[in-house]
Amino acid sequence: MSADKNTPDTHDFDVVVIGCGIAGLSAAVSALEKGARVAILERSTVEDRGGQTRWTEAQMRMKSEHEVSDDFESHFAENAGHYLDPELISEAAGDYANWSSIVKTLNFTDPELISTITERAGPTLQWLKTFGVRFDFQPSYFITTCTTRISPVGGGLALVEALAAAAEKKGATFFYRTTARDLVTDDTGRVRGVLAVGERNRGLRFNAKAVVLGSGGFQGNPEMLTHYIGPKARYLRPVARGGYYNKGEGIRMAMSVGAAGSGDYGQIHAEPLDPRSGAPEPIVLVFNYGILVNKRGERFIDEAPSTVDATYENITRHILEEPEGIAWAVMDAGIGDVPNWKKSVRSDQAPVSAATLDELAQKIGVPAAALAHTVSDFNAACPADGKFDPLATDGLKTATGYAPPKSNWARPLAKGPFIAYPLICGNCFTFGGIKVNTRSEVVNADGEPIPGLYAAGEMIGLYYGTYTGATSVLRGAVFGRIAGEQAAP
Predict the structure, then answer these.
(1) Judgement on whether residues 390 and 365 belong to the same structural domain of the protein
(2) Domain of residue 153, residue span
(3) Residue 1: its pLDDT value, please?
(4) What are phi and psi of 40, to 5 degrees?
């Protein structure tokens, strides 16, 4: 360790892992199992460790502890990218070793990575169980669903606590309140360590044989959000506390040594949040039983094209495009016909309630005449007959020619009291990341692995279009474990 106060304190390890969520912890424990000396760098305090994972229910798109859901690969295939060159896609159907460099770095969902998750998901869950994690099909905040999901008992926090305890027991060294800033490379281009800062901006140097990037996306960095997403990013906020720690340094560090970008940099995984609430993930997922209006008191989208778990992301993105990035979910007393509807509301704030629409409009700050007109037109377009089924898409749709339509659960809003929840676009995580291969090796712009550099979790740019729900934590666990196996000497 240097005595010069201007020289960074130096530490030597086999593997340095950046990030303490599911990706980083899986990598660390996996490397420790291989006998590596491991350091874990975590920006937060020990009390907040765990990144996004700490705050999520950690649902996984699986039909059992051994198999992914039936629609797992097909949903990824449907959201693999935009206007892809068919000649390049046909090349991707062949053996990866024969792919050209442009296909290896193509900005699309790599089928090799999806196959890897499919094959490794079951074994990864069995591995997590060896640390005391239990999985089950548990109640979630969705009233209606389109796929199967399993989750750890105790949510993401259970994963963090189990893996962190295992890492500590196996001898990992944790460096809290420590932020990685730059990768160290040698003359051959191999990554040899990390430059970081600790408390009071104290410089630190970590020499290592390999580095694993597991520090998430950039949902906590307003500069990067505005750069990639645009001015509307001012209305975004992370879904949970862990997101504020994700400031994108891992992505920038990787790109500074030549990593290829991947994932939709202009898009996020969006969730509808109550902006009044500071609770973890204060989502409101009952708008499909009412209507959504903007600050002008106007409807702007079909609130119920399908089950809410399949459509809330797209609808929430449209909320971001409305004036000031906010909307109101308006319902009447008929919401009481939906069994246990409050389970789909995770806000700790009560809805705004009023005996009349005029009173409600005044309370939520939208023009009363406009709201009355919107509700009157909507009510007139609702079907006069048909059976309301809150637990399945019921086909109760508005009349032909009425716009925007409502495809299911269209019932008049006529019975007071009326209630409303404000909704903004919550940023669960960003889609843009870096390219890896099936060994979790970061690849450069020519498709070649960068020696000594691995990545997992939100760092991997995997998503385009619509997020394949309940796959992010699974992505982190699978590729984190692989990264640790490969990084260990």
Answers:
(1) yes
(2) 9-266+431-487
(3) 38
(4) -120, 120
Q: Residues 459, 405: one domain?
A: no
Rounded to 5 degrees, what angle do the CA atoms 334, 335, 340 make? 135
Final residue before a domain boundary, out of 403, 426, 449: 426
Provide the domain count of the chain.
2
Q: Report how far residue 248's alpha carbon sits from residue 251's, in angstroms, rounded to the nearest whole number.
A: 5
Kindly report the CATH number assigned to the domain that includes residue 172.
3.50.50.60
- pLDDT per residue as tens digits for the range 50-107: 999 999 999 999 999 999 999 999 999 999 999 999 999 999 999 999 999 999 999 9
Confidence tier at 388 by pLDDT (50, 70, 90):
very high
- 409, 426, 443 - which closes a domain: 426
Q: What is the pLDDT of residues 413-452, one digit of tens each?
A: 999 999 999 999 999 999 999 999 999 999 999 999 999 9
Is residue 4 in some structural domain? no
Contacts of 27 (CB under 8 A, 6+ apart): 15, 17, 212, 214, 454, 456, 480, 481, 483, 484, 487
* pTM metric for this prediction: 0.95
2 has a pLDDT exceeding 60 = no
Distance CA 123, CA 126 (A): 5
Closest CA to 129 of 166, 86, 88: 166
Task: Note whether residue 3 is domain-resident.
Answer: no
Tokens for 221?
Answer: 């960095």
